[in-house]
Amino acid sequence: MIYKSSRLTSRNHLFPTSLDVEGHQITYRKRRWFGSTEETINVDHIASVRSMHGMMFSSIEIESSGGVEPIVITGLRKGDARAIEQAIKTNQAP
Question: pLDDT for 6-52, tens place per residue?
C-alpha cells in the first residue's frame, strides 16, 4: 500500500513524499525538480518507528539499524500513520 503526505503541509507543497509498505520492505520516495530520492529498507532492519500526531496531520520517523539518517515523513493522515506503524510491526513479528 502506498501512503502519500499531504500537499498542505510544509516541505510537501510541490513534491509530496510517499511510503510504499509492501510485504517485508518499505520504499521511501521523495521527488525533486531534477530526479528523485528513493530508499528501500527491509522491515527486519528497522530499529524503531516513532509517530507524532497533531490536530490534523501526523509525522513518522523510521530509523534503520544500518542507516545514517532516519526517514522522516510529515503531513500524513492520522489513519495512514497508524496503518504504517501496524504494517511494520506485523511484518517484524517472528
Answer: 887 777 778 888 999 998 899 999 988 899 889 999 999 999 999 99
Q: Which pLDDT does position 23 carry in this prediction?
A: 85
Q: Domain with 69 in it: what CATH number?
A: 2.30.29.30
HSE toward the beta carbon, residue 69, CA cutoff 13 A: 5
C-alpha cell at 22: 509492501
pTM to 2 decimal places: 0.84
- Three-state DSSP state, 83: helix
**Total domain count, the chain:** 1
- Cell 530526479 belongs to residue: 35
| Of 18, 22, 59, residue with least CA distance to 41 | 22
Q: Tell me which amino acid residue 85 is.
A: E
